[in-house]
Every structure is written in structure tokens, then in C-alpha cells.
Amino acid sequence: MPGALATDFYELTMAASYLRRGLDAPATFSLFVRALPPQRGFLVAAGLEDCLAKLAGFGFDAEDLAFLAADGRFTAADLERFAALRFTGDVRAIPEGRIVLAGEPLLEVTAPLAEAQLVETLLLNQVTFQTAVASKAARCRLAARGRQLVEFGLRRTHGVEAGVAVARCCAIAGFDATSNVEAARRHGIPASGTMAHSYVQAFPGEPEAFAAFAADFPGGATFLVDTYDTAGGVRAAIEVIEAMGLGEGVAVRLDSGDLLELATTARTLLDAANLGWVTIIASGNLDELAVDRLIRAGAPIDAFGIGTRLGVSADAPFLDTVYKLVEVGGQPVLKLSPGKATAPGPKQVFRSPTFAGDVVGLADEAVAGLEPLLVPVMTGGRRLHPPEPLAAARGRLDAELSRLPAAARRLEGPVAPSVAWSPRLQALAARRATELRPGGDER
User: Fold this and answer.
1) 420 lies in a domain?
2) Residue 274: which CATH number?
3) Whether 75 contacts 82, CB under 8 Å
4) How far apart are CA 283 and CA 442, in angstroms?
5) What is the pLDDT of residues 271-286, one digit of tens each?
6) How far is CA 116 from CA 77, 134, 369, 374, in A?
7) Which tens digits make up the pLDDT trace of 390-428?
8) CA distances from 415 to 37, 329, 407, 410, 440 (A)
């Protein structure tokens, strides 16, 4: 569906007013995060792919127009203009998987004013949520220190489509698999799962449940061992493994209780039975801090299933993202609102190989020795490239994390790299602020 009504109402009234008055000059809007949430030393750019897909099909269908006609606040001429409207603009963006910081544009849109205005809510919705989740997932990856990670969040995410986006963001961040079958189908992510406690309860006892599951799915069965008594569940799993001669790929899963103590007990029992190759998976209200504590304590856990707290980015469930007009009709503009001031003009973000500090400059300048991050991704409403494989975004994040300063990677008390404005941007902002204040040239 075109989806033009997935917006805030004032976007429609502003767009209608622009169109009535012939205000169709090219306008550039910049989408950025004002400030990092507490306990974040970096963010991971995500959501661009969904933005481009939705922009490419943006428009009003017959049902949309009928709804607006019934509302009564739009004229027949407004509806005719909406019916003809498509997104014909240009987009420059920081590719998914790259690290971003506060005050840096994640993307910039240049399009006729009404078009650029109408897509604000859509872009903020996609980028805000997915960047928040990808950033949380990257922290989980840092905490796991190379251990396997499986995304378990679908049943607790705020909607099924959000769950698919979460799985994709986690794959970008380096998760190995997802429990979300639809996400696996759409995005080529390995699907992974174990069993629920209800499966164990449906049989007379754990040995019967484990034997039945292993018989039906012999290639890498995972036994959930904490339905009744965890040590007893591990012993039942050992009994079935030995009796059925199960081989590589078998695991036991712990989902409750003191995971450090229970994982140690499970490892001891498995090793004593010469089953050192059986892996231990832990889940149950985990996040990056819990994973970090377990690993620091020496828990013999090989893989983690992380769901609820990741799928809603529980400690930072939103980002202070904004989408601000920075140029219209070739004239740089800015806001001077206290606490919400913006910088004028289309921009570029420049980064050193060592993350010594990013520089935000104007789009038409270059900073010697620094890499520009914003790249063209859409021109004239058409994508410049087909959707890329998730491995590309994951590779970018691998490279970024490897050179991100240790202080920014800290899970607690992180310190983000600095962001400065280029001298040209500073000068433009100062000049435009003078012109726009009372007594200035334009007032």
C-alpha cells in the first residue's frame, strides 16, 4: 500500500497549504539524534532499507483520498494534488551498520517542499526504532565476547512488523540466528529454536519428552531442562543422549534461576558423562549487562537467547530523533529555539580512521584526511542500488566496532567520541543567526 496516511495530521495540512500556494521549491531536511541516551557511547545506523522501500512506493491511493474527502478539511483541489503526488526527491544517508553519534545527520532528503515534508513521520518512525534496536543489539554482541547470540524477541515486540525489523537489526549487529520464522524467510537469517516448557509438560516426564523430540528432530536437538528441577533435567538429557547415541549439535537450555550456578552444575554433569561437546544455551530476561556479568563470573555458557529487553530496547526505548528543515529554495535556514537550535544547510559527516572525533560540515565541502559518511542512495525518487545483503551492513559494523575507542564501547559509563562543526558550518550558522534575530538583516 502507498502508506501516505501513516503520518501525523499536521504533515497533511502543511503539505496542502504548500501546494495551494505553489510553494514547491526544493527543500532539504536533515534527520539526526539530538542527544545519546544514557549508557550509550554510540548508535548503529539502521532502518534505511525500509525507508527507501517506502519512499519508492509513496503516494495516496483511492481509499486514502476517500478518507480525506470524508474528513471535510481538504478541498477537491487538495485531493487532486495529493492524488498526483509521489516522492521524486533525492536522499543521502549514512549506510546501515555504520556507527553514528548525536548531532550527525543519519540521512538528508531534498525534494519539492510538500514531498519532503510529508515523509517526515515515516522516516522518523523507521530510523528511530531500528537504530535504537540495532544499537542495543550491538551492545549485546560486545557483551557476549564471541559467544553465539539468538534473537528471541518476536512475542514481546510492539507488533509483528516490529518483530521482523528487530530480527533484521540484530542480524546487522552480528546475531547468529533468530526465532522469528518470517524474518528468517524475508531476510535470509538462520532460524533457530528449542522447545517450550509446555512441550515437556505434555509428556509423562522429561526423558519421554526429550526422547520424542530427538527422534522427530535428530539434527541438533536442544533440551529445555528447567521445567521441574534443572539438575534433574540435565540428567534426563544425558540419559537420552546416551541411549539414542546423539552426536554433535545437541544442547541444553537454561531459562530460569541462577544461571551462573545452574550453568556450572550443568557443565559439571555433562563433562562427567563425557559429553563436553554438548553446548549450554541460556535465556530468560537477559540483556547486555546480564550477559556481561555472567561471562565475567566465568559462567560456562556457550550461547545466549535474548528477547524482551532487546526487542523493545528496554533501557533506551526511544531516541530523541528530529527531522529539520535546513534549506529551502537554495536559502540555508535554521532554528534558534532554546535547547532545540539547529544548524543550517545540507551537510556531510566526516570521520577519521581512528574515530578521533567526527566533524559535521557542509555538503559541498571536504575535510582533508577524513572520510565522508553520507552517500547518495536515491535520486529523483528512484533507488540508486538494489537492496544489499545483510552481510554488507554487518561487515561495516565489524569494521566500525574494531576501531571505536574502548571508552565508547563500555557497557556502563561509556564516553562517546566528540562531534564538532567545521569552520564553514560555524560561520554560516553565526551569519544566519544574526540575520534572523530581531534587528538582523532579515527582520
Assistant:
1) no
2) 3.20.20.70
3) no
4) 61
5) 999 999 999 999 999 9
6) 20, 26, 33, 18
7) 999 999 999 999 999 999 999 999 999 999 999 999 999
8) 12, 39, 5, 8, 39
